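Problem: given the chain below (566 residues), write out its structure.
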Amino acid sequence: MAQRLWLAGVLAGCLAALPVFSARSGPQLSDEEKILHALNRLTFGPRPGEVAQVKSMGLKKWINLQLHPDRIPESPALEARLAPLDTLRMSPEERVANYPPPQVVRAMVEGRVPFPQDPDKRMMIRRLAERFEQTSGKGADDQAKPELAAILTVSERRTLRNAAPEEKVAWLRGLPLEKQDQVLEAMPAGMRRALYPAAPPELRRKIEWVSGPLQVVAADLQEAKLYRVLYSNRQLEQVLVDFWYNHFNVFLNKGADRYMVTSYERDAVRPHVLGKFYDLLLATAQSPAMLFYLDNWQSVDPNREVKLFLAGRTAGKSARRGLNENYARELMELHTLGADGGYTQKDVTEVARCFTGWTIRNPRQGGSFFFNPRMHDPGAKVVLGVQIPAGGGIEDGLRVLEILAHHPATARHISYQLAQRFAADNPPASMVSRMSLTFLEKDGDLREVMKTMLAAPEFWAPETFRAKSKSPLEMVASAVRALDADVDYGFALANQLAQLGEPLYRKQEPTGYSNAGQDWMNSAGLLARMNFALALARNQVPGVRVDQARFGDEGVHLGSPEFQRK
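Solution.
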């Protein structure tokens, strides 16, 4: 017990940025300190033995490999955990069809939308439809769920109440599928959750489904995020995906984005994190998730009568809409130029005019990007002093993206944001300046910008060593990785992140979460981090198991080379 408490105390101290992790002073970092610095900044924290592995390979070679993730074989442990999460591989339309919201379930029953081909999903959707029928006309608090007493014997109910989770799961899996579903529907939510530690992945998915098919989509997204940051061998890629998703933030809980965010991260963000910035900017601009989140899909030339084919409206019905400036403003303030990038309100309006017609086809059914010329403002525009002639169509928006992606203010803003995430809360101006120059000279090549940062002496200065506090995601991930814990499911970890102030994919404001470590530090946050560390070291985090025996009886500082060699 003393060892566990000691271990938890050290973990809480080092991961909460207490003085034990203060910046180092001295002429330069040692070779081992450089390796630890790289592992702490370019990954989600070192695992036991990684310092020795990087030292054996050579730090420069390790960094070069991380900058080329396609050359790194992915972890079989990660691939095994991602395999059951089928929504990750679906299109938004497929997610809506296989994990439908209530309105789509009704459309399936009425024959307007086909049922999914999977027989299990088809049966569960029919049961959902039956529940909707039973609740028709009732109040929101009325529940059309079967009662356990009506479908189980006294002995079976006793098993559900008193048996160990493993026995409950074995009994439940022995039931016919239809009765299994009825029992899960009738069980209180807390009782269902208690099955998680013993349930295989397919039963966990059913438990999520009973809470609502949409819950499966959100759960898959969160689980995949946690598995990737914990188990991926391509750690720098995972850090960059987190950074760029945050930079181009989309709020998961906004309407149709519940089905679109998975594809947004997979198709618009992940492929471009070490590519050209223009390609990343274009992919996010044309993503239905971004168009829906910042309302550009409804932005229309206010001087034209258009026929809108929007979800919930009758096809062919005429309606007058207005110009929506949300995306135009965030595009310049957050995504490219920065708040001090020299643009004016007139530029915001002109950019919004350029992006009229960039919309979504059937967003409530998963939708896809398309350009609607009937919604577009064809007049001449002037953006940041550049003339955009009249008569253009989708090319107007593309021209704006070209201007912004190659603007010096964008180079500075992006370089500063990257340096703040990876180097210091207040990154050295000299390093940011060199990164900006690379951005401009290399046509926004983000891999080259990263190389410039990692080659800068300022990045390896003693003042930067252990000088940044971790965000909640970084703290939780690095704690689990440091203890080499086994994660069977991530539900409890995702809840922990929400309690620490960083719910995954749920930052409502377009700013995303702060890259400055100091913004995460307050007394309540420090206490919550210590409580998490204690729970983790005591094996009290559901779904996460720490093998305490591997650390022996001697106290070893988790960030030290001695710990890394154990």
